[in-house]
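FAQ

Q: What does a record look like?
A: Structure on top, sequence underneath. For example:
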């Protein structure tokens, strides 16, 4: 959201005023705005993958949307935040518990945009790789088919799997 980006930029400005490395910050100039766009594209892509309707005038409640898209109960608050993001970007409007599509989101290609951002912002390569890994699985996370912690910490998943394998158990007991 613009508010979050503004707060982050204010924090960067404060750090620079306190003597932070200007050359380091320059390598990220413009990235936050790009991440805002990329985030929206991934949210729209996930909702469409799950069956979301973005026709102008279409209205729905959060609970209807959650049920129709098959979003897992533990992700209800996250769903409200994602819908709020789309409202902040002017795609949805909210009246009480009802959301209405007021501007159809374009059809983006977020994975391609992410690759281009990685080339444009090489200092942010690690962050963009993690962002893409998590955002590209948003639909699976919302349905409860993917553990978000495994996306954030894939090495931990591999270590856990390796220690559960019969070969690993045999090696550990030897």
């Amino acid at each position: 959201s613009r508010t979050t980006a503004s707060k982050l930029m204010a924090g960067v400005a404060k750090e620079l005023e306190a003597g932070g490395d200007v050359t380091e910050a320059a390598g990220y100039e413009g990235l936050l705005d790009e991440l805002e766009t990329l985030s929206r594209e991934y949210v729209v892509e996930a909702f469409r993958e799950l069956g979301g309707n973005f026709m102008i005038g279409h209205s729905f409640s959060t609970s209807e949307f959650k049920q129709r898209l098959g979003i897992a109960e533990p992700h209800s608050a996250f769903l409200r935040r994602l819908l709020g993001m789309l409202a902040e970007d002017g795609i949805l409007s909210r009246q009480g518990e009802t959301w209405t599509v007021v501007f159809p989101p374009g059809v983006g290609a977020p994975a391609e945009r992410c690759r281009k951002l990685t080339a444009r912002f090489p200092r942010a390569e690690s962050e963009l790789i993690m962002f893409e890994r998590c955002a590209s699985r948003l639909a699976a996370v919302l349905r409860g088919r993917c553990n978000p912690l495994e996306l954030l910490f894939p090495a931990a998943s591999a270590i856990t799997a390796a220690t559960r394998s019969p070969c690993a158990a045999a090696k550990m007991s030897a």
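Q: Is there anything notable about this one?
A: The longest strand covers residues 92-95.
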